[in-house]
Amino acid sequence: MSRLQARDVVRSYGPTPALRGVSLDVADGEIVAVTGPSGCGKSTLLHCLAGILRPDEGAVRWNGERIDTWPEAARSRLRRTEFGVLFQFGQLVPELTAAENVALPLLLAGTGRREAGRAAGEWLDRFGVGHLADVRPGAMSGGQQQRCATARALVTGPRVIFADEPTGALDTLSGEEVLTQLVQLAREQGTTIVLVTHEPRIAAYADREVMLRDGVVDPTGLGLDETLVPLPAAGPGTDPR
Ligand SMILES: Nc1ncnc2c1ncn2[C@@H]1O[C@H](COP(=O)(O)OP(=O)(O)OP(=O)(O)O)[C@@H](O)[C@H]1O
């Protein structure tokens, strides 16, 4: 079943069109990579799906309900509960320790301090950074910060993780390690992932790749201009039989 759906989504920034009519269905537990060249609208689509941006036209549905028409407070609540977001730079709160950062979404959702602390420790352990529980982001490597940020995105048990180039700031090895862990944990819990990336190696972790080009889904899926794709020869005299 497709629990997350975009229908004919159009979005511009002033005079600049970013999405020119994108439809996408994401099934429960599916891992979808959104790829395409720089500026093709990947981040805008992710932000529209996650309820961060509102489309100018079209609809975004979650569980069959239109969320793009919800007021900001309701969309923001959705992002604290059923949705989780993860960006290129983990955006950890610099004044808080790793454990406090990971516990934060739970505390905001009303979980008690003790339970939030316990869950934060458990998630930091799962990402191999339990020993950094009392360390602040400034004293961690980029990879360690991103592991903490990933733990924070998963701690509330979201149904969908929206990740925008989540490993883009890391070297290849650290990036793939973080991603492997994210994908493995998501698969264990049946969490859906919508992942924006321009790296084919990263996209290969997904079940499916959706390629955008100039604000629309590329029907060739190859990033090629359809008019340049050679068609099989046809017509009189060209029948290969
Ligand atoms: N805040 C903004 N203000 C004005 N134009 C914007 C803004 N954000 C994006 N755009 C424009 O919208 C289009 C789509 O941008 P978007 O960031 O969605 O693409 P992208 O595929 O994610 O790009 P990249 O891979 O470079 O991050 C681009 O032409 C971009 O310049």
TrEMBL record:
Domain (ABC transporter) ranges: 4-239
InterPro entries cross-referenced by the UniProt entry: AAA+_ATPase, ABC_transporter-like_ATP-bd, ABC_transpr_LolD-like, MacB-like_ATP-bd, P-loop_NTPase
Keywords associated with the record: ATP-binding, Nucleotide-binding, Transport
GO molecular function ontology, one term from the record: ATP binding
CDD domains linked: ABC_MJ0796_LolCDE_FtsE
Highest taxon listed in the record's lineage: Bacteria
SUPFAM superfamilies (alphabetical): P-loop containing nucleoside triphosphate hydrolases (SSF52540)
PANTHER family: ABC TRANSPORTER RELATED, IMPORT ATP-BINDING PROTEIN
UniProt name for this protein: ABC transporter ATP-binding protein
